[in-house]
Amino acid sequence: MLETLEAAPGPQGSTCVLLLSHIVNDLVLARYHELASALSPRFDVTLLLTEQAPAPDREIDAVSVEPEEIFLPEFGEKSSSGKIVPGNTELAMLAFRRKRPGYRHIWLLEYDVLFAGGANLLAILDAASGADLIVPKPPHTRAALPEWSWWRTLHPAPAVHSLTPDTMIRALICVSRYSSRLLDVVDKAYRDGWSGHQEATVPTIALHAGLKIEHINAIAARTGRHAALSNRSFDWQKCSPDDPQFIYHPVKTLAAEARLRMLLNVRAGWQRLVRGGAGPA
To answer: What are the beta bridge partners of residue 106?
Structure first.
């Protein structure tokens, strides 16, 4: 079994980067080491496992959370499925936080997120935003995206008399950052009776609490970047080659990563050729 470090409080005011996975394989270990080597000591990089799993590499900070730690009875309907997928990865993060309290911010990254240009981009984004919730793309209201099938699971606490299509929002959160304040609010909201798919509950609870939400490209623009991801590079089901510096999701195997990087190199070569051909004769 994978040896995990003793649970210990995170240093007050620091930032944790959680790499979430239910397995330990070559891809997950590669992602972990990319993050750990790229980020400064200001970040604690931790592999968060929702299942115990064997691992060949013991030189990692890994924490396992068991189902009884994730699906608290106090969370009521939110815990009722007893399953991480779909819609409960934030419960694993809350379980981790109870083991290691004290972080000012926690990034939650699913294992199939690839920083094609290097994970130092995460540090740039982190430093450029004071938002309580950072998400990959602009959130959508139910009014703007009525066809999303998981709206039906979103239920506020009984004390919240109603939500309207304009006050229910959905956002991808497969790479996202949470403030300590937001995590406190989400934890209390679930204890008060909120339930539903995380892509709706987390941003809607944040909106309801008056907390600040930003998306990655808006933050990247403040740093002088044109973008950090696109609809081609980042979605919930599949991605396609776009910019070699973008964030990609989902990239679920090392073979898929190798193919993506090959296509990015081909694309970059064509762009150089076109630019060269457009110059003076």
So the answer is: 16, 178
Report the C-alpha gap between 240 and 154 in whole angstroms: 31
Question: What's the rounded Cα separation, in Å, for the pair 107 and 15?
Answer: 8
Q: Residue 179's beta-bridge partner residues?
A: 105
* Largest CA-CA distance found in the chain, in angstroms, rounded: 72
Q: Cα(264)–Cα(281) distance, rounded to whole angstroms?
A: 28
Closest CA to 93 of 65, 121, 135: 65
Which pLDDT tens digit goes with each residue over 229-258?
Answer: 999 999 988 999 999 999 999 999 999 999
Give this prediction's pTM.
Answer: 0.90
Closest alpha carbon to 215 in 197, 232, 198, 234: 234
Q: What is the CATH number of domain 15-277?
A: 3.90.550.10
Give SS3 for 44: strand
Domain borders along the chain are 15-277
Question: Does residue 212 contact residue 130 with C-beta atoms inside 8 Å?
Answer: yes
Exposure b/e, 160-187, CB count within 10 A at least 16 = b = beebeeeebbbbbbbbbbbbbebbebbb
pLDDT digits (tens, 9 = 90+) for 84-133: 999 999 999 999 999 999 999 999 999 999 999 999 999 999 999 999 99
Low-confidence ranges of the chain (pLDDT < 50): 1-9, 12-13, 278-281
3-state DSSP assignment of residue 32:
helix
